[in-house]
């Protein structure tokens, strides 16, 4: 296994920063449908894609979470984006390739990617 | 049918999480000698009644309220039996459940293992308060990953802290790639 000493060093470094960040609020949630239907349609690489892209850009006030079956299995993989004080946006037929654009346009710049949404494709 | 066994792992482990498990043990075992791939899911969740165990791998058995169909276990069972493998469930109310399944390693219908490291990582990241014990045996070579050890090491930081989870992800993918010798699918 990678050394636990390395992990302990990361812990020591991060503990101070956690204290500094305590007041930060999470104001955006990215929720990926991860029931049997979502997983079968390819939700896992999509979820991992969001985690990777957020980390790559150093975005920390956004959480990635999972939900069960949303009820429209043929539109999976589905991703719901909740930005504080705004209406929920639902993306359908998501792929890892679409993730970077959703993060860039929607999460960072506040403009949902209309052509990927359920309104445009459903 | 799931495209990869890794997707089945993610899906079936979800049952343990829904059953309120605090420790979920997932074992993968690949043996070229026996020509099998075996998966074992063992949890300490609420368990099932003998009646439910009998029908739980049927598509029209589900605990969800929204509709009368649940496909996770049926898909797993189908994949196992069509590749010459076995499928079994043991469960006791209040104790937990164990699902054991095997596939024919060289059978043409066996889905590829796929990204097992990614499936494990996804489980840890999305369920940071549940403990997981992953064991992977590849022709006798073993890799063990225990989130209880990680949790103790990073306490009080959560397992889904960005830097911690990045370490977990790298650890899983490096170790499993090494175990496979880069060749297994």
Question: What does it look like?
Answer:
The complex is a heterodimer of chains A (122) and B (185). With 122 residues, chain A is an alpha+beta fold. Chain A has a single domain (24-121), classed as 3-Layer(aba) Sandwich (Glutaredoxin), CATH 3.40.30. Helix content of chain A is 45%, strand content 16%. Chain A has five helices and four strands, in the order H-E-H-H-E-E-E-H-H. A four-stranded mixed beta sheet of chain A has the order 2-1-3-4. In chain A, strand 3 (79-83) and strand 4 form a beta hairpin. The radius of gyration of chain A is 16 Å and the shape is globular. Chain A starts with a helix and ends with a helix. The relative contact order of chain A is 0.16. Chain B is built from six helices and six strands; from the N terminus they run αββααββαββαα. Chain B has a six-stranded mixed beta sheet with strand order 3-4-2-1-5-6. In chain B, helix 1 (5-18) runs parallel beside helix 4 (116-126). Chain B is α+β, with helices and mostly antiparallel strands and 185 residues long. Chain B has one domain: Heat Shock Protein 90. Chains A and B meet through helix 1, helix 2, helix 3 and strand 2 of A and helix 1, helix 4, helix 5 and helix 6 of B.
């Amino acid at each position: 296994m990678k050394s636990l000493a390395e992990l302990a060093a990361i812990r020591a470094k991060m503990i101070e920063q956690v204290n500094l960040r305590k007041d930060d609020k999470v104001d955006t949630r990215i929720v990926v449908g991860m029931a049997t239907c979502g997983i079968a349609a390819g939700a896992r690489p999509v979820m991992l894609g969001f985690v990777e892209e957020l980390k790559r850009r150093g975005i920390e006030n956004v959480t990635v979470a999972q939900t069960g079956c949303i009820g429209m299995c043929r539109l999976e993989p589905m991703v719901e984006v909740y930005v504080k004080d705004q209406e929920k946006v639902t993306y359908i037929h998501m792929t890892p390739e679409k993730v970077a654009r959703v993060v860039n346009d929607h999460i960072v710049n506040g403009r949902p990617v209309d052509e990927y949404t359920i309104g445009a494709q459903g | 049918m799931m495209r990869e066994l890794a997707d089945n792992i993610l899906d079936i482990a979800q049952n343990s999480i829904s059953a309120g498990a605090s420790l979920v043990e997932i074992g993968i075992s690949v043996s070229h000698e026996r020509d099998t791939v075996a998966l074992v899911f063992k949890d300490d969740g609420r368990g099932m009644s003998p009646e439910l165990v009998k029908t739980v791998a049927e598509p029209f058995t589900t605990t969800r309220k929204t509709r009368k169909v649940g496909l996770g276990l049926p898909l797993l069972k189908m994949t196992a039996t069509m590749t010459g493998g076995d499928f079994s469930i043991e469960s006791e109310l209040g104790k937990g459940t164990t699902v054991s399944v095997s596939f024919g390693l060289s059978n043409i219908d066996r889905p590829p293992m796929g990204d097992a490291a990614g499936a494990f990582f996804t489980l840890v990241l999305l369920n940071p308060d549940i403990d997981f014990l992953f064991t992977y045996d590849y022709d006798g070579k073993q890799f063990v990953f225990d989130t209880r050890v990680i949790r103790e090491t990073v306490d009080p930081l959560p397992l889904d802290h960005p830097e911690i989870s990045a370490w977990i992800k790298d650890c899983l993918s490096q170790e499993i790639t090494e175990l496979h010798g880069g060749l297994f699918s």
